[in-house]
Design goal:
DNA polymerase, domain 1, 12% strand, hpI Integrase, Chain A, three-stranded antiparallel sheet
């Protein structure tokens, strides 16, 4: 939003279409809101959306200063206007406002973040609808939120989970202040439980060898090997496409991800994104010979079954590496459940699929790979994330530090002792002469 302009605008999605929403004050200094449709669907090209939004903003800007705002067409139907309309005189119910804020913020966050926010706010709504039904946004105090945080923690949820809910609520209240319907943020007066430091679980080299043996010939064999060798996230492994593999130049590039959402009554819904978690998640690796061979075998196998089965071979996800012999995409839910089944049924140490990422990192750190290089390999956004997770495993650097301090202090001690012994000898000699 442009803070130096007499109006603000955001882009949001309503009923499957993109809209530009303008907040401004009329000639009587009363706050108003105007929804302008872009006419573009939710899954439109970003370039097209950007161009259309710029066109609408430019038209609004001109109309605002020529006092012809009402000439700009608004939404397609009145039914598309949300229940909450911005205005200083509006009385807002707390849980109603949270629903509104979530839709407002949706275009500015990733899909997975939006799903996470939705899950967190559902728990907030359930609690407040039961404990404080119809409480107004302006009536929510730090005490109410503190009771909610305490209730979650006492229910067995971790301090980290409580903090995740706090972060979402803080943002929601912050936006309410921004649009002048609140004066203070009550979340800033709450106390949060202590965060328990995360300790990653991982397999040793010997345990990984056993795991590879268990998955030999299994549908997840390639998935497990790629995850362990490269430390990739589940979504990154499943997002691998043959255009990500360069057999000639021996590289493997991470450029998309496959995630899913389990909706009640509809099953697992697959989502493919070319936008990764962070900019650092987009990275290119050398193609490890062992993985190179497995990928070539997989490509040959895919071509063989495609020719053998013909039209029955599923081409819905053509181009993706991690598919079964019928061409069906291996889904995130299948990876999680089948991996757990194989680990438990074969008597291996309990480990989540994501912990293969930690196993890769632990082996790199233990082998003396610099932490900065491990960060780049894993695609962490910052060095601190990597250091927080794995610094306790960096035993080689501790040994080097111990060796250095030992040489410094022991050396000084020995030199001091030699000098003292020489002094004593000289003194004894003088005494004998005397």
């Amino acid at each position: 939003m442009k803070a130096n302009l007499p109006y603000n605008h955001i882009v949001t999605v309503k009923n499957g279409k993109h809209y530009v929403i303008f907040d401004y004050k009329d000639e009587n200094n009363k706050r108003k809101r105007k929804w302008v449709t872009t006419g573009l669907p939710e899954n439109c090209a970003k370039k097209a959306l950007k161009a259309k939004v710029e066109e609408i903003v430019a038209a609004f800007h001109e109309a605002y200063y020529s006092e012809k705002i009402n000439t700009i067409p608004e939404t397609d139907t009145a039914a598309e206007t949300p229940k909450i309309i911005l205005g200083n005189n509006k009385v807002y119910e707390f849980t109603e406002y949270l629903t509104y804020w979530l839709e407002i913020t949706k275009p500015s966050i990733s899909y997975n973040t939006y799903i996470g926010y939705t899950h967190n706010l559902n728990k907030v709504r359930q609690y407040f609808d039961e404990k404080y039904p119809h409480i107004k946004l302006s009536e929510v105090k730090a005490l109410h939120l503190q009771q909610f945080y305490n209730w979650m923690y006492e229910s067995g949820l971790s301090g980290n989970t409580v903090r995740h809910h706090h972060v979402v609520l803080h943002k929601a209240f912050k936006y309410a202040i921004k649009i002048d319907i609140l004066d203070a943020n009550p979340t800033e007066k709450t106390e949060l439980p202590k965060i328990k430091k995360f300790e990653a679980s991982f397999y040793s080299k010997e345990e990984l060898d056993k795991l590879f043996e268990v998955f030999k010939g299994d549908r997840l064999e390639l998935v497990v090997h790629i995850a362990a060798y490269y430390g990739l996230r589940r979504s990154e492994v499943l997002g691998l496409n043959w255009d990500s593999i360069d057999f000639e130049n021996k590289t493997l590039t991470i450029r998309r991800k496959v995630t899913s959402q389990n909706l009640k009554g509809t099953g697992e819904t697959i989502r493919i994104d070319s936008e990764l978690k962070t900019a650092s998640s987009v990275r290119t690796f050398p193609l490890i010979p062992h993985i190179d061979k497995m990928l070539r075998d997989k490509k040959y196998q895919e071509e063989y079954y495609s020719n053998l089965i013909g039209d029955s071979f599923d081409k819905t996800y053509d181009g993706f590496v991690c598919r079964d012999n019928m061409g069906k995409l291996i889904t995130p839910a299948y990876v999680t459940t089948h991996f757990k089944l194989m680990v438990d049924s074969n008597g291996l140490k309990h480990l989540r699929f994501h912990d293969l990422r930690h196993s890769c990192a632990s082996l790199l750190v233990a082998s003396g790979v610099p932490m900065k290089a491990v960060q780049e390999w894993l695609g962490h956004a910052t060095y601190n994330i990597t250091a927080d997770y794995y610094s306790h495993l960096d035993f080689r650097s501790k040994m080097a530090s111990a060796d250095t301090i030992s040489k410094l202090l022991d050396g000084n001690s020995q030199n001091g002792g030699i000098e003292n012994n020489n002094s004593d000898s000289d003194s004894n000699a003088e005494n004998k002469t005397a």
